[in-house]
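Entry for pyridoxal-5'-phosphate complex. Fields follow.
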Amino acid sequence: MDQAVNNVKAVQNHIAEICSRIGRNAEEICLVAVTKTIETERINEVVESGVIHLGENKVQEILDKYEKLPRNVKWHLIGHLQSNKVKYIIDKVEMIHSVDSLSLAQEIDRRARNIDKTMDILIQINVAHEETKFGIELEEAEDFIRKLAGLDHIRVKGLMTMAPFYEDLELTRPVFRTLKNKFDDLSKLDMPNVDMKILSMGMTNDYAIAIEEGSNLVRIGTGIFGKRNYNL
Ligand SMILES: *Cc1c(COP(=O)(O)O)cnc(C)c1O
């Protein structure tokens, strides 16, 4: 058996432990296994162990793996998406976590309409104003979502962020807390294509803090599959 399967169990146990400590229900937390650079045989063992939500940050990797993995897999596009590539994945993914421009949202809406689908999307927020990261500024999130009104083939399901890397992990806490507050505010927006349910935050190094601060979807790669080798 692949070590990744044991790691999944360990992560699930850790999530259960955190939740019981802080009085949350572990079943609220969706675990997305991030499979970038990982070969399909290893991913398949993880899927067979019961993890069906998989995350990729590149369109091409989803396309390469899509046919080789079981049909019950739910793919999450978690990385930056160029508008011209939406057409390749629109019928294949469960959710797009990285919507950060009006033109991208419009293209997703257009392509979804063509295949009679409503695409679930998250708005990526650059909470810490990092120049190296994609995402909408926190202060602009509400205006941005209002601009999406009328795009009736997308559904805004929530928000996503990547916290900056800090040596001192505790520094990520205010980042997550700030986004949770914004998420709660935006949940009150009354728009037909907004249904704020998913708060996608937390990766291998910071998921415990993210859950403590209200995340309900964590994206974990290294903690399941080990260190990635980008030179394969
Ligand atoms: C790679 C990646 C992850 C997973 O990172 P790990 O540190 O390996 O858990 C999560 N989210 C996004 C957007 C990623 O690109």
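NOTE: The radius of gyration is 17 Å.
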